[in-house]
Amino acid sequence: MLVVIKDNFEEMSKESAKLLASLVRRKPDCVLGFATGSTPLGMYKELIRLHKEEGLDFSKVITFNLDEYVGLPPSHEQSYHYFMWENLFKHINVDPRHVHIPMGMAENIEEFCLWYEEKIDECGGIDLQILGIGANGHIAFNEPGSSLGSRTRIKTLSDQTCEDNARFFENKDEVPKYAITMGVGTIMQAHELLLMASGVAKADAIKATVEGPIMAKYPATIVQLHEFATVLVDRDAASKLEGSYSGF
User: Fold this and answer.
1) In CATH, what is the architecture of 2-234?
2) What are phi and psi of 73, to 5 degrees?
3) Tens digit of each residue's pLDDT (9 = 90 or more) over 195-209
4) Which residues are catalytic?
5) For the whole model, what pTM was predicted?
């Protein structure tokens, strides 16, 4: 596991976009795993700039998103479908046929989850999976206690996760209680992981992830076992790390 510390959110975002863009240039038909939330927004902004100003080509790229709320249609402003199209996809030349985001309105969620896993395998696996991290150590919607071998499935969201996400809704009662999420095992099968975090609110989570024991109680700690995992953080998120780490 490589830990990279940048001075601030902007530098972290540019570095993450640089890593992803390098992969796209080397392998134009690569499979990218995307995440939602505030952390990757700076990276998405930089990717849009690279596409518009430097011709970064996404036309052959295949994408899979980590998760989606159950019960929200793709048109809902808080759905992750809406988030991805508004913040990235509609600004680049990605082929809509190559975009895969869990369907929270699926009639049979169990069957959909099986299909999602099969589709990832059919595409040869995910080349690079982007990850954020929750304050309680969750990755995607794999809450504390999730099996480290879990696959794509429906999960009940913890009270803390609902509280963290309440700021995106008019009130906490509107926050969905369930989500479809890639499993920890699914995430770990990606060829490369890039976990990002910014701000002092994520400092405890990053310390536990990088320097703590590996345990299901803190799902993000599993990235320690991935052969090609990079943890890319700003100085605030790295403020509680005790080891010696450096930037690129």
Assistant:
1) 3-Layer(aba) Sandwich (3.40)
2) -70, 160
3) 999 999 999 999 999
4) 67, 136, 138, 143
5) 0.94
